[in-house]
Design brief:
heterotrimer; A mainly alpha; B mainly alpha; C mainly alpha; A: mainly alpha; Methane Monooxygenase Hydroxylase, Chain G, domain 1; 69% helix; C: mainly alpha; two-stranded antiparallel ribbon; 74% helix
């Protein structure tokens, strides 16, 4: 079981080696003079889907994103509780089902509230 | 083998934690924090706690980091960075004292180490522990109420008066 | 089997049900006063279930997660009463957050559920989850006004509360690592048979105890974890300040007594060690609270420091519990009676402050001048409560202090009682200053201070409690003595 994580580790090592070697390659090629060094403003400007970039990088986002983020976190925690229940659904039987249903019902009240109060609407 | 992996992960974790504290740029510090969450998930794996590792990735790397980054994007004038506090030196002293105390405690106590091999995989056992007979059913249900209170509170606090 | 145990949880379940109903009703009902009624009804139903369970056998339910004992039932009743009085007293206040009334009541109820679970929790896991449940709702309630001060209060409370619960978790982890158990009784079994002669032999247990005390100490606001109190008390909505100072503190004491008494009560050197720890903290807490309260000009801040000092007196009871484990239950019953009297007294004081401050729109003591002429009844009530906080006859405060100090002297904590008595004399200065301003100062205007019937009702209930506990304490003492029975002892 644990050895399986070795493959992930291997993947990680390859990923790190790749990301480190690519800039090194480019740098060494330019150092050797194989790549010409002719800079101009267009070359050094920020690339944004071919559009002109306007203004600062740091703009203040609408706070509504935060509401979604918070509701997302609550859902995420719900998933964490559902996951171990789902893997042994059969052994846990009726008691497990009922307790998850209660868990879900309590949380659903929160979502009904959020929905009815218009917290999920983008005004 | 696992020892080596553990020490590499531990070193990276501590490095990332220091970066979180010392980086002036809030956004970079947040990214370092996300990285730290990842390496902690790795440490959980070396401790044979695979479910915990998954939860760590799912909640911390997946959700909490989004929350932190969104919060930074909501902030005005982020580029100014985090100013250094006046209490840096006292905080350092207290932090080091706490570290020393915890390390001394961990080292000098005779812990009971179980000779039962760790369970693999742990998810089924945790499921039984949470929802099964003799388990932690009540705290799980309280956790649902806790989440409800959090959703309610978050909406109240975020919406305008 | 779990389903058959559900009826032993009816107080919490019914209250939670009412909280959910309040949340859902809020979506459909325009008239928000109805929600207050539903909340009060929920509290009364829950209190009814609590009373009905008074005679139930002492057992643990949900696989040793919760204890059903009189100790928990006593606290549940106290918490329900406090929450009910708070909701009544909020009626003049809720207009400040017109849009979120439903959420306000729901969060008060949910935090009450959390605290009720906290007083009954018999396992470190359920203790932690219940603590967080009450904590999260209170963080939100503290910043409910959404002005600068209230937001600051909520933020400070949240940040320090998060640190405190991290510290608490560290302590729990150490205790769990050492004993391999999370249920309090199982921990007690392991700790009792540990082959060690003193705490210094076992640094993990020592550090675990210190961290647990620190984590819970935040909840009861004892020194050195009291820093959050003045700012949070000043900034939070006044009913919530009262709620924090009474209910949250009572729940904190309940969980401390349960954890330390049940899990760490034996061997006797261990309980004496933590008893002495609490005795020292108690002396520092009351002294600091009283001395700093003298210079306060804002009445909410003053009552904040005063509640720190009162926590110090309450910790005399905690110290007595520690040094007297196995001897008698005087420490516990003293603590319970003091909490009872402190609850009615402090609630009364805060409710009077709500009534007065809401009208004159100021929390400064100086602005209370001449209140005796502008609002004689409110001034009489506030005076009564302040006199009870000092501990003068014929009020609850006197009996409570005599009771708790007597228990301490009985178990050799004479030095602590002397410190406490000196402190009570100091406290008379700042409490009586308010009384003097109210009765001898010249009123700034002739305008009367009106208040709603709900607020007057809750205030008169509190004053009635203060007088009853002071004049005929016998039956209440009997109640406190009946409630010392903790599961597992």
């Amino acid at each position: 079981m644990l050895a399986d994580y070795g493959y992930i580790g291997l993947l990680l090592i390859v990923a790190i080696l790749f990301t480190v070697s690519m800039p090194l390659l480019a740098l060494s090629l330019s150092f050797l003079g194989i790549i010409p060094r002719k800079s101009n403003p267009d070359k050094t400007s920020t690339y944004e889907c071919g559009m002109e970039t306007i203004g600062k990088t740091w703009v203040q986002f609408n706070f509504r994103y935060y509401l979604y983020a918070i509701i997302f976190v609550a859902l995420d925690v719900l998933t964490v509780f559902l996951y171990p229940w789902a893997v042994n659904l059969k052994e846990l039987g009726l008691l497990g089902l009922i307790s998850v249903a209660v868990f879900f019902a309590i949380l659903v009240v929160g979502y009904i509230y959020a929905w009815r109060k218009g917290a999920l609407e983008w005004k | 083998m696992f020892d080596i992996v553990f020490w590499i992960l531990a070193a990276v974790t501590v490095g990332a934690a220091l970066a979180v504290v010392f980086l002036r740029d809030v956004f970079r510090a947040a990214l370092c924090l996300v990285f730290l969450f990842f390496t902690i998930a790795g440490i959980y794996i070396t401790l044979h706690a695979d479910f915990l590792a998954v939860v760590q990735v799912l909640i911390y790397v997946g959700a909490i980091s989004i929350l932190i980054i969104v919060a930074i994007m909501l902030t005005r004038e982020v580029w100014r960075g985090s100013p250094s506090g006046r209490l840096r030196i006292p905080a350092l002293v207290v932090g080091l004292l706490l570290l020393g105390m915890l390390m001394f405690t961990a080292m000098s106590t005779k812990w009971h180490i179980s000779d039962v091999p760790p369970q693999e995989p742990t998810t089924t056992a945790i499921g039984a522990g949470l929802f099964g007979d003799g388990g932690f059913l009540l705290p799980v249900e309280i956790a649902a109420v806790l989440l409800l209170a959090a959703v309610l509170g978050a909406i109240v606090l975020i919406r305008e008066k | 089997m779990i389903v058959s145990e559900l009826h032993l949880m009816t107080p919490e379940l019914s209250l939670l049900g009412f909280a959910l109903v309040v949340i859902l009703l809020d979506l459909f009902i325009k008239q928000k006063k109805v929600l207050a009624g539903v909340s009060i009804a929920g509290l009364i139903v829950s209190a009814g279930f609590t009373l009905a369970m008074w005679g139930a056998p002492t057992i643990d339910i949900f696989y040793a997660m919760l204890a059903v004992d009189r100790f928990a039932l006593f606290f549940k009743f106290l918490l329900l009463a406090a929450a009910g009085l708070i909701i009544l007293a909020s009626q003049d206040y809720v207009s400040k957050f017109e849009r979120f009334q439903g959420e306000y009541y729901a969060l008060v109820l949910i935090s009450a559920v959390g605290m009720m679970l906290l007083t009954a929790a018999a396992d470190l896991i359920s203790i932690y989850v219940a603590l967080e449940l009450s904590g999260i709702s209170l963080y939100v309630l503290a910043s409910f006004l959404k002005d600068q001060k209230s937001t600051e209060a909520g933020l400070k409370y949240l940040l320090l509360g998060a640190v405190a619960s991290a510290v608490l978790l560290y302590g729990m982890a150490l205790v769990f690592g050492l004993t391999g158990k999370t249920c309090l009784l199982c921990i007690a079994d392991v700790v009792e048979t540990m082959p060690i002669a003193g705490l210094l032999d076992n640094p993990a247990l020592l550090l675990g105890i210190i961290l647990l005390a620190a984590g819970f100490g935040f909840k009861i606001a004892c020194v050195p974890f009291q820093m959050w109190v003045p700012d949070v008390y000043e900034g939070a909505p006044t009913p919530i300040t009262a709620y924090l100072s009474v209910a949250s503190k009572a729940a904190g004491f309940a969980v401390i007594v349960r954890v330390f008494f049940v899990a760490l009560g034996a061997p006797s050197w261990l309980s004496i060690d933590w008893g002495i720890l609490f005795a020292i903290l108690s002396a520092i807490t009351m002294t600091l609270g009283n001395v700093v309260a003298i210079v306060q000009t804002n009445i909410k801040r003053m009552l904040g420091y005063s509640s720190i000092a009162q926590a110090g007196y309450l910790m005399v009871g905690l110290a007595t519990v520690g040094v007297a484990v196995g001897a008698d239950a005087l420490g516990r019953s003293g603590l319970l009676f003091f909490l009872m009297s402190y609850a009615v007294t402090n609630l009364g004081a805060f409710i009077a402050v709500i009534a007065i401050s809401n009208k004159i729109d100021s929390d400064l003591i100086g602005d209370y001048t001449g209140m005796g002429k502008r609002a004689p009844l409110l001034a009489v009530a506030l005076t009564l409560c302040l006199v009870s906080l000092i501990g003068l006859p014929p009020t609850a405060g006197l009996i409570a202090k005599i009771y708790i100090f007597n228990a301490a002297v009985h178990h050799g904590l004479l030095w602590l009682v002397i410190v406490a008595v000196i402190n009570s004399c100091i406290s008379a200065y700042y409490y009586l200053r308010v009384v003097k301003v109210m009765w001898l100062g010249a009123p700034v205007s002739e305008e009367k201070v009106p208040s709603s019937w709900a607020l007057r009702a809750s205030l008169s209930l509190c004053c009635l409690g203060v007088l009853l506990l002071g004049v005929i304490p016998g039956s209440f003492v009997g109640m406190a003595e009946a409630a010392v029975r903790i599961f597992g002892s």
